[in-house]
Specification:
Layout (H helix, E strand, L loop, with lengths): L2 E8 L3 H19 L3 E5 L4 H7 L5 H9 L2 E6 L14 H11 L4 E7 L12 H4 L3 E7 L11 E4 L5 E4 L6 H16 L4 E6 L5 H14 L6 E6 H10 L6 E4 L1 H14 L9 E3 L5 E3 L18 H13 L4 H16 L17 H13 L2
Helix pairs in contact: 1-10, 1-12, 6-7, 8-9, 10-11, 11-12
The structure holds 3-isopropylmalic acid and magnesium ion.
Length: about 350
């Protein structure tokens, strides 16, 4: 049966990297018999410019009907002066909450070809394979009340609320334990339980849920220590589960262990594995339109889509192998370039992946 994929390029480098992932998808359609139909949609600044809203009703209808969503990135200087509630980022957050994509999987995997691209010593990162499971529809990103107010004494004050209910913690914990069961069976829950009650509660619930997963070794770590440990000895981690904001921060950090944020894909899943797939990097306005962005994180996100939402694990591996192949062949976009290496453009990288697929 033909599956529908909503394709939302968004802003900045979004359209450039999505164009390369679409070439890969088309190759899978034409040469590998993948039955999918692509439906384009607007989100973020592109949607604001066209309709006034970061997540227009048409787009919402499209993504709700689709089997999976492929997203580029949102945001840029042009829309930074809008109130937070009307910014491009609200389009992305709206997609996550409207589709109830509470489980964000962010693998930080080092391709052996890129061991020298990391700013850390190769022996610290060689063989690195971490999965960050980030809670995506709760916590301080969505907590109420929030806003900017004026107090009785006339002073202005900004405020947000960090709140997690038991069911929210329990369901993300289960995703993390189940992921750990398929890997090295080690789960580290990251919190700030020494200061924040909401995460003291997080620790309590994760510990309770752990009783259902006796094969998984659970540890807890404060987020400040986790940030340090990720740089000091990252290979101690297998799966990390954490809150929305801590996951946002730690996944950017983890990306640098692998050489470049341009390499890291993500999957955001609901309870039924319907998902949205996007690179973890943003819209990178500073390099937009220059044909130099790395499309591999988006292409690897597509591989995650094949695995989690389209039930095509073999094709997923085929795409991942094609990415390894182009790296082995020495192709490097600017972000993963090492001294003495030539760089290729966004399009050349995408086309090389397509060629590697066709050579299979
Ligand atoms: C991410 C991004 C987003 C987030 C932004 C663009 C809203 O940084 O996906 O990590 O904070 O979640
Ligand atoms: Mg982020």
């Amino acid at each position: 049966m033909t599956k529908t994929i909503a394709v939302l390029p968004g802003d900045g480098i979004g359209p450039e990297i999505i164009a390369e992932a679409v070439k890969v998808l088309e190759t899978l359609q034409n040469d590998f018999g993948l039955a999918v139909q692509l439906e384009p949609g607007l989100v973020g600044g592109a949607a604001i410019d066209a309709t006034g809203y970061p997540l227009p009703a048409d787009t919402l209808e499209l993504v709700k009907k689709a089997d999976a969503v492929l997203l580029g990135a949102v945001g840029g200087a042009k829309w930074e002066r809008l109130p937070i509630a009307r910014r491009p980022e609200k389009g992305l957050l709206g997609l996550r909450s409207e589709l109830e994509l509470f489980a964000n999987l962010r693998p930080a995997l080092l391709f052996s070809e890129l061991a020298n691209a990391s700013t850390l010593k190769p022996e610290i990162v060689a063989g690195l394979d971490i999965l960050i499971v980030r809670e995506l529809t709760g916590g301080i990103y969505f907590g109420q009340p929030r806003g900017i107010r004026t107090l009785d004494n006339g002073e202005r004050q900004g405020f947000n609320t960090l709140v997690y209910s038991e069911s929210e913690i329990e369901r993300i914990a289960r995703v993390a334990f189940e992921s750990a069961e398929k890997r090295q069976k080690r789960l580290c829950s990251v919190d700030k339980a020494n200061v924040l009650e909401a995460t003291e509660f997080w620790r309590e619930i994760v510990t309770r849920v752990s009783q259902d997963y006796p094969n998984v070794q659970l540890t807890h770590m404060y987020v400040d220590n986790a940030a340090m440990q990720l740089v000091r000895a990252p290979k101690q981690f297998d799966v990390i589960v954490t809150t929305n904001m801590f996951g946002d921060i730690l996944s950017d950090l983890a990306s640098q262990l692998t050489g470049s944020i341009g390499m890291l894909p993500s999957a955001s899943l609901d309870a039924n594995n319907k998902g949205m797939y996007e690179p973890i990097h943003g819209s990178a306005p500073d390099i937009a339109g220059q044909n130099i962005a790395n499309p591999l994180a988006t292409i690897l996100s597509l591989a995650m889509m094949l695995r989690y939402s389209l039930n095509q694990p073999e094709l997923a591996t085929t795409v991942e192998n094609a990415v390894s192949q182009v790296l082995r062949d020495g192709l490097r976009t600017k972000d993963i370039q090492e001294p003495g290496q030539n760089t290729v453009s966004t399009r050349e990288m995408g086309e090389a992946v397509v060629a590697a697929l066709r050579a299979k």
